[in-house]
């Protein structure tokens, strides 16, 4: 499993990590998710300890990294939902269901973190 981590400003809260499969991360790598923002060395306090990490600032506003990522994730959620409807069938096995819905669950998890203004930074795996 790989992680995409969301950090609050100056260690106010614990970071939120989204664990994703290698395959899902490869899919993200080939998408616009990885094209948004620039990883910059950023000094941040994590649970009382200072660190410098390559982070993307999630600022506010219409043309912000946060807005672009939110829009991308919402569009991807729509496409994944359509894919599930087309491929699920009438009586899927538990494995089929889990395999088809995994990307949708992870996209929603990422979207919730991106849209949560508590998190000010993103670290991509």
From TrEMBL:
Domain of life: Bacteria
Protein name: Uncharacterized protein
Source species: Oscillatoria acuminata PCC 6304
């Amino acid at each position: 499993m790989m992680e995409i981590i969301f950090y609050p400003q100056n260690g106010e809260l614990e970071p939120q990590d989204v664990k994703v499969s290698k395959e899902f991360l490869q899919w993200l790598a080939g998408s616009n998710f990885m094209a948004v923002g620039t990883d910059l060395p950023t000094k941040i306090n994590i649970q009382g300890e200072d660190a410098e990490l390559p982070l993307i600032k999630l600022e506010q506003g219409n043309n912000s990294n946060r807005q672009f990522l939110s829009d991308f994730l919402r569009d991807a959620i729509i496409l994944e939902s359509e894919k599930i409807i087309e491929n699920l069938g009438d009586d899927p096995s538990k494995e089929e269901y889990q395999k088809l819905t995994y990307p949708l669950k992870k996209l929603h998890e990422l979207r919730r973190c991106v849209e949560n203004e508590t998190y000010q930074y993103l670290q991509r795996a």
